[in-house]
Automatic annotation (TrEMBL):
Disulphide-bonded residues: C438-C467
The keyword Transport is annotated on this UniProt entry: no
Name listed for the protein in its UniProt record: alpha-1,2-Mannosidase
Pathway: Protein modification; protein glycosylation
Transmembrane segments: 46-69
Active site: E240 (proton donor), D372, E481 (proton donor), E509
Species, as recorded: Coptotermes formosanus (Formosan subterranean termite)
Keyword list, A-Z: Calcium, Disulfide bond, Endoplasmic reticulum, Glycosidase, Hydrolase, Membrane, Metal-binding, Signal-anchor, Transmembrane, Transmembrane helix
First-listed, main subcellular location of the protein, grouped into a coarse class: endoplasmic reticulum
A Pfam family per the record: Glyco_hydro_47
Length: 607
């Protein structure tokens, strides 16, 4: 099946292959690269030494040059670093000078040339500076020339400035009490570690970049460069680390053009790969980054369906960036495998066994936890690959029909449309909706933007109203983690919340949908709603040293703060709010980027 898949895949490229070959862009660089790559390692070393000697000679005779040499760090700080100070409201990172002396050349035999890896992202790279002109040398090794960063203008209005102020407040507390740890506990002024990968710094990298916060980006980059090590003897969750860490490293690479991020991504991606060594190819949920041993979760023999199907954007991008197909191949195979499994009208149970490759029958069907992003990545993978992999779109379309038919109901009183869950293999309907499921209207709108039926937009608009009500009906104006809907005719009240479900974790899904809906429809109501929610976060979750999850959205005088600021608050929630309030709704264009499940933008390719 995989062979068949790949064959289709390559064939689909062929019409475009000539276009790239004829592109005149990057030709001078190409021949230089080719010349360079044809040198032996010894010849390259000679060139390095001569270049270094020449540079040192020049530096030595330059007036005032001695300050440039920093004996303490043993590093030659290039003059480029001083360019970190940029004029206000523009954001530009210089190309990083690559320190090739201490970098091993990748083994050439690891890089198998494949036509699809010589593809450029669809965007015209004129202003975006993405890796549009990757070139291939005689042995098929791919090189992206050094790249310039994408420019963002910084805040353009008061709402955006308010979001930046919130970000800086959170960042300050994190820096003071939790720097280098995964999460800030803002009330006790301590920290929480989950994978010990500095999650908050890594997740926030591209948010910082998009906000144009030069100083913060420099310190975060420095930490990633010097202190983010993946050689840690600890089990991590494949899905979480892929969407939060791998995704952010890749998007930071694409936005800033700084190859250090890609090098880190390659190291991490390589350590995650053993997850795929199961009998079925469906990945194990956990892996030890140091021993590289993968296994199922401790509490169950099964992996979550959404987890094994929400790693493909990142692994594919890693392959496209490096020219090494093994990442994309492993992850794409999982999607194809799940495609081949029997489903009920496109809907999937939430557990899948890595050894047998089968769904656990009778497990719940939901667009909330453990199901949600399976549907999201069907659409987004289709977009990422230039709408060339038909089965992804078809499965998405079928699933949305299944959702409309089997999962949607209306409340008795005000006829709000919501998405419920099917239990026991589809026998019982439960009128329960996770806040997580509020990502769906944004994803539906993204599909319509890419040519899917207008009918999906009607569903999206209705779900937006329901999700908005989840916020608006609470006295704190913050939605609970889970809402139950009232479908009994003759009763009053549309929704209710159980005590155990009344928490708000600063989650992004609804503001994510607001941003998509605003960008695609231009309807300012969505900005207005976002502003109301932002103010509720300010009022009920802001504490002296950051922002905290709360335990009870139903009681404004006792919100039961939980003393936890998860990395997605900086990585996603504040990013989407900042983008939502932009005067230019297309500041991060949906035709150039596809955002992963953790709001990290990755380039759209044309195949
Ligand atoms: C904008 O969206 C709101 C909420 O769905 C809706 O009530 C309103 O009619 C929309 N406005 C326009 C101009 O479409």
């Amino acid at each position: 099946m995989l062979g068949q898949f790949k064959k289709d895949y390559v064939a689909l490229n062929l019409p475009n292959a000539g276009v790239d070959a004829n592109s005149s862009r990057g030709w001078p660089k190409k021949s230089l690269w080719r010349w360079w790559n044809q040198l032996s390692r010894f010849q390259r070393s000679v060139v390095y030494v001569l270049t270094l000697a020449a540079c040192l000679t020049v530096l030595y005779f330059l007036p005032g040059a001695h300050a440039i040499w920093n004996p303490g760090s043993g590093k030659l700080n290039t003059a480029l670093d001083s360019n970190y100070i940029t004029p206000p409201l523009t954001f530009f990172f210089p190309k990083k000078a690559e320190n090739s002396l201490d970098k091993e050349e990748p083994a050439e035999e690891n890089y198998v040339h494949e036509e699809i890896y010589n593809k450029k992202p669809v965007q015209d790279t004129g202003d975006m500076g993405l890796n549009g002109n990757a070139v291939t040398n005689a042995v098929g090794q791919i090189h992206s020339p050094p790249r310039e960063g994408v420019k963002f203008s910084g805040p353009t209005n008061e709402r955006q400035s308010a979001v930046i102020a919130a970000f800086k407040h959170a960042w300050k507390g994190y820096k003071k009490y939790a720097w280098g740890h995964d999460h800030l506990k803002p009330i006790t002024g301590t920290f929480h570690d989950w994978f010990s990968l500095g999650l908050t710094i890594v997740d926030a990298l591209d948010t910082i970049y998009i906000m144009g916060l030069t100083e913060e980006f420099a310190e975060a980059r420095e930490w990633v460069d010097t202190s983010l090590h993946f050689d840690v003897n600890r089990d991590v969750n494949l899905f979480e680390v892929t969407i939060r860490v791998l995704g952010s490293l890749l998007s930071s690479y694409h936005l800033s053009g700084d190859k250090m991020f890609l090098d880190k991504a390659v190291d991490l991606g390589t350590r995650l790969l053993p997850c795929f060594n199961s009998d079925s190819g469906v990945p194990y949920s956990d892996v030890n980054l140091a021993t590289r041993k993968a296994h199922s979760p401790k509490w169950s023999p099964d992996s979550s369906t959404s987890e094994v199907t929400t790693i493909q954007l990142e692994f594919r991008d890693l392959s496209r960036c490096t020219g090494d197909p093994k990442f994309e191949d492993s992850a794409a195979k999982v999607s194809l495998h799940v495609h081949g499994l029997e489903k009920s009208e496109g809907l999937v149970p939430i557990f899948i066994n890595a050894n047998t490759g089968h769904f656990r029958s009778y497990s719940t069907i939901t667009l909330g936890a453990r199901g949600d992003s399976y549907y999201e990545y069907l659409l987004k993978q289709w977009i990422q690959t230039g709408q060339t992999i038909d089965y992804l779109r078809d499965d998405f379309m079928e699933a949305i029909s299944g959702v409309m038919k089997h999962l949607t109901r209306r409340t008795a009183q005000n006829k709000y449309l919501f998405i419920g869950e099917l239990l026991a293999g589809g026998r019982d309907f439960k009128p329960k909706m996770d806040h997580l499921a509020c990502y769906l209207p944004g994803t539906l709108a993204l599909g319509v933007h890419n040519g899917l039926p207008q009918e999906h937009m009607l569903l999206a608009e209705e779900l937006m109203i329901t999700c908005y009500q989840m916020y608006a009906q609470q006295p704190t104006f913050l939605a609970p983690e889970i809402t139950y809907f009232n479908i009994q005719e003759g009763t009053t009240g549309d929704m209710s919340v159980k005590t155990n479900d009344a928490h708000n974790l600063l989650r992004p899904e609804f503001v994510e949908s607001l941003w998509y809906m605003y960008q695609i429809t231009g309807n300012q109501t969505y900005q207005q709603w976002g502003w109301q929610i932002f103010q509720a976060f300010e009022k009920y979750t802001k504490v002296a040293n950051g922002y905290t999850s709360i335990g009870n959205v139903r009681n404004p005088v006792n919100t039961r703060p939980r003393d936890m600021m998860e990395s997605f608050f900086l990585g996603e929630t504040l990013k989407y709010l900042y983008l939502l309030f932009s005067d230019d709704p297309h500041v991060l264009s949906l035709d150039k980027y596809v955002l992963n499940s953790e709001a990290h933008p990755l380039p759209i390719y044309d195949t």
